[in-house]
Amino acid sequence: MESAASSWLHQSFHGSWIFVLFLPLIMIIVFQMFFTLRLRVWCSCEICQAYIESRWAVQFPNLCDWYAHLLRNSPTRTIHIHVLNNTITANPDNVEYMLKTRFDNFPKGKPFSAILGDFLGRGIFNVDGDSWRFQRKMASLELGRVSIRDFAFDVVRQEIDCRLLPLMESVVGGEQVLDLQDVFRRFSFDCICRFSFGLDPKCLELSLPLSEFAVSFDLASKLSAERAMTASPLVWKIKRLLNIGSERKLRRAIKIINMLAHEVIRQRRKFGLSDQKDLLSRFMSSISDDKYLRDIVISFLLAGRDTVASALTTFFWLVSRHPEVEAAILNEANAVIGPDETLTSHEQMRELHYLHASVYESMRLYPPIQFDSKFCSADDVLPDGSFVKRGTRVTYHPYAMGRMEEIWGPDCSEFRPERWLRDGVFWPENPFKYPVFQAGIRVCLGKEMALVELKSVAITLLRRFRVELAHPQPTPRFSPGLTATYRDGLRALIQPQLLFTLYSLCILDFDRLSYASKIDNERQPYIVYMGELPEDRISLMDVHHNLLAQAIGDETIARNSKIHSYGRSFNGFAARLLPHEARILSQKEGVVSVFRSRKQHLLTTRSWDFLGMSVKVKRNQQAESNIIVALLDTGVWVESPSFNDKGYGPPPHKWKGTCDEGGNFTGCNNKVIGAQYFNLAHSVQPYDTTPVDTDGHGTHTASTAAGVFVERASLYGIAEGTARGGAPSARIASYKVCWETGCEDVDILAAFDKAIADGVDIISVSIGGASRSFTQDPIAIGSFHASNKGILTVCAAGNEGPYEGTVQNAAPWIITVAASTIDRKFQADVKLANGETISGIAVNTFAPRKGFYPLTNGVQSQNSSGELYGNASACDYGMLRQDKVKGKIVYCQGAGGDTVVRNLGGAGTIMSNDANLDTAFSTIAIGTYISVEDGLKIDEYINASKSAQAVIYKTRTVAAPAPAIASFSSRGPSRLSGNILKPDIAAPGVNILAAYTKFTSVTGEEGDNRVVKFNVESGTSMACPHVSGAAAYIKSFHPKWSPAAIKSALMTTCMLPSFPILIRSRSDKVTDIVNFLAATPMRIKPVEAEFASGSGQINPKGAVHPGLVYDVGTDDYIGFLCKQGYESKDIDLIMGSKGYNCSNNTQARGADGLSYPSINLRVDSIDAVVSAVFHRTVTNVGIGRSTYVAKVKAPEGISVEVIPNVLKFVRLHQKKSFKVILKGHKFQMNLWYLSGSLSWSDSKHHVRSPILVSLPTNY
After folding, report:
1. Degrees, nearest 5: CA angle 631-975-1162
2. pLDDT tens across 372-399, in order?
3. What range(s) does the Subtilisin-like protease fibronectin type-III domain occupy (predicted)?
4. Most buried pick, 764, 941, 948, 1101, via CB within 10 A?
């Protein structure tokens, strides 16, 4: 052997210098041979020898099938591959132990991070510890937004309609064989690139070559996965060092990926983020490190491309082999969507339960990620008794778990979607039995969006095409890789679906076809809304039962299906229905709408002083104490000092509410006169139900609206002052509709029904969700009936800003509230030993214990043996040495390093970040946030000094210019009514101190033991109760005013800019700073103008005497609904009248059809000529004999004519009408809205309405 090798070397190299050049390569080959021989000597067990020699391939088509065989035959369902130092398990108890019980002891580990480090860097799928937690928290925040889910759905639909369907149509019925795996990989890559990067690689345009980015991404993924297949990591590490072979290709591919990623980031920073909706743009607002951004987004690209494509490939392979499943899916789609209709919304998707079950069943048998490995940090023992030594690779195997009889039964190898369906609903299994989306703390955040993409493609293609495999195989054969990839693709002929449907009726299994047609297993909670209460309420429950029984066809099932009857304030019921039953009910006489119950979400002192309502403000205390403010929220902690009932008499006689019992609840008092909970959707177990607030949100909002005076309230001395609500003498009624999992529609509507009947005056709702038709939105329905009973509903606008078209709760009878800042900020300063002081922003409750601490930065504290691909400057997990951090203050570039520094014994953390500096976040340890520019100064000081020192001071309250609209506050326009301006108004919602519950901590984070009576929170949730309190304050002076009159008074007396005209171009990204007339005006006007602020900042004192009000009632709202296109029969039921017909009644006039306090016109296009008339009627509530003159500040290029322009009143409550005519030529280029105003003045009162003219946005 040696002679042959010597001869080969001599002939090959022809010189010693070449031999020297290639010596490292020879060493690698020799090392591999040695390593293989060493392994055989080290372990001669049958399993290890079968692995080394690949003997498994004789019996099994794939390595994963061999593993499944071994695991099935293991008594513990756990095996150990000695040569790999790998423990592999298919035991659900072990999976739960790894992913939940002992999560911190089973990280991904450095070996895994090293393999993918060059490709994924510090992205979420390649890091552990605090870096992982930071990215997960950030991703959770963004992926949970309604706007991002809508954006993802739109991207998928566009890609399907514009590319996937035309491609399939081009080959249908022909002889061309299509590789569906390749098609799905291209499709999913296009979608995930557009979603994550805002970049369209056009991979599905088969006429174009694959983009260099797509080719490089695919190659980088493949070569990175191959690293894991080498005998030792030293092999690929040496090749990388020498830049040869596969590592040279990998480096080149990653270089191309990096070039494109950094160019996209550079362009995005250059031209701004406000018009972008992709993940990158959202993350850029809070992360300044471009390399970090690249890593994060590349991880999402990898997950979103390969897993979705793999799942789709397997789904169509299975469905093509099971025509009975395909028929069941199609039958269900026809029942839910309609035979000739297309899928249009998330809601329709949620009703396709058999499809959902089929997708889950497909991934049970063939998970996209067949196994997942962690590394044991410390010696441990798994629940099945298996000892795991430190450093051992521990793998759980979803592929094998899907083939375990004790988990899935004797038919575990069969494709049976029915196993996922119970009692009419899709029934998810324990995630530790089905860890396809991981489980526990690591559960996949993008799960829902991935399922939407999967099901959208599946149902769209199945309804149009039949997939006929060109080369059917009994089982797939997989290629090595990060995800399950078919070795030879999925080659298929595409046939039209119609022919198959006719054929399939003759051959399908009867039971399954029967199942598909009846859709027996899809019961979900629905709300059946029936409008106003009938005169005969005695038999209401019988009416509901009879309707249910007729739709279901079975008395017993009908009785068991009903969840609740709404009958106190409006007519309707909730029941668990099948889609076809819901459709039957929707066609019944007396039913306005039938819609699925969805889950909605919470939209989470000095502020009243800032609004001009000091402690000594004039109040009508007796009248105020008779006002009841209802809050639909997380409950209330009655023992809070803000709800002390000293000096209160018994509840008002009109009060008909109750006080529920529950765990930790001590009862109501004369301040909190009602505390009820609603758990119709069974969000929690019955023994966990209680009206007590365990979250803090409900207590915070209730005290903001109507809390009593509490002197010296503060958060550890921060923001100290007298805490109180806008109506401190008012009573509070709490309706708990939100639990840990969210706020269910059925519970929200039940709370409205009860609150209206209980006799409340104001309803405050800091809850929101995606926009829906007014007759399918429980908040819109409940608030309409509240308005009809003289009750004003105030709602949060949403926290989806700064993106346009994200405003929620936009019904015109609701007052919709944006969030603004107040004239203070929470400053946590940094002082350097050189005397320089740097301003920071945070809620830091910790005071320093000495004058100065040693100061260092992440780079100087770097752990040279830490994770190879972390960023020390950002203080990433694993990148800092404890001995270099302990007792020191550490400067970190970017957010999220404070937890790392705290865990290493650091004295504090300074973090630089230019995003979200309008909001102070609570730190769990000593820390503060500074600007990136100031961060550079600190770095320079550290590098120039041998003994740098600094101190971080506890947060103090300082004056700040205000108000400004918060960056998180949702923006208009409304998706439902383009000519109604939403939000209506702005109120303080940033850094608000208010009461809190004792059942959670300041941050709610693990390890935070600070339990407080008052806490600082931000969100439109905090803005909403400010307006609720202000409305109660106004009602105490004007108890007979209608909800619309109170709303008008608040809107037309807002604090206003002295320069009201703002023209915003499509490329303008800079917020205008303007001067204002009022004492505390909106000094910082948002770029989005009235789409962000509505009429402006509330002025409660001024709203008590508005002069004129735009007073509208139920008939006006009905006319508006007619104009919006709602059917007469539905409006007849809503009104409770007989024979109402839109065409026979006075038509709503003008562009918007409603006498609204603001004027908003949306034109069709940039070329459209502006021409519109708005009809308005005002009521005199000021001085009996008075004359008001119109003053117009017209939007640039628009003429505004008011007819008449003088209104003369001779008595109070007299009404006068006028019209406003807008005319103008087409918009200038690059402009998308113009704003101005109309003011009526009698010299004492100034009644202002904003005027906005806008183009449609691309939301």
Report:
1. 125
2. 899 999 999 999 999 999 999 999 999 9
3. 1154-1253
4. 764
Reply yes or no on whether 633 is catalytic. Answer: yes
Which one of 65, 128, 372, 633 is the catalytic residue? 633
Contact 1137, 1129 (CB under 8 A): no
Residue 697 is among the residues annotated as catalytic for this protein: yes
CB 1145 within 8 A of CB 1205: no
**Token pair listed for 707:** 């809390």
Query: Closest Cα partner for 128 from 327, 454, 491, 373?
Result: 373
Instruction: Work out the burial of residue 1191: count CB atoms within 10 Å of its CB; fewer than 13 is exposed, 13-18 middle, 19 or more buried.
Output: middle
Q: In degrees, to the nearest 5, what angle opens at C-alpha 398 toward C-alphas 394 and 404?
A: 110
Q: Which of 607, 873, 1021, 1239 is catalytic?
A: 1021
Least-confidence region, from 30-34, 1130-1134, 1182-1186: 30-34
DSSP letters, 366-381, are: S-SS--EEEE-SS-EE
Name the more confident of 431 and 1068. Answer: 431
Using the predicted structure, report yes or no on whether residue 694 has a pLDDT greater than 60.
yes
Q: How many residues does the chain have?
A: 1259
Q: Is 661 helix (H, G, I), strand (E, B) or coil?
A: coil
Distances (CA, A) of 282 to 145, 834, 967, 969: 11, 37, 12, 14
Preceding peptide of 472 cis, ω within 30°:
no
Q: What pLDDT sits at residue 729?
A: 95
Catalytic residue (choose from 697, 785, 1026, 1245): 697
The amino acid occupying position 486 is Y
Please give the DSSP secondary-structure letter assigned to residue 97.
I
Give the burial class of 1136: count Cβ atoms within 10 A of its Cβ; 0-12 exposed, 13-18 middle, 19 or more buried. Answer: middle
3-class state of residue 658 by DSSP? coil
Q: Backbone dihedral region of 1078: left (phi > 0), alpha (psi from -120 to 50 degrees) or beta?
A: beta
> Residue written as tokens 């089905």?
434
Report pLDDT digits (tens) over 310-346. 999 999 999 999 999 999 999 888 877 777 667 666 6
Q: What is the pLDDT of residues 57-87, one digit of tens each?
A: 889 999 999 999 999 999 999 999 988 889 9
Give the predicted TM-score (pTM) of the model.
0.68
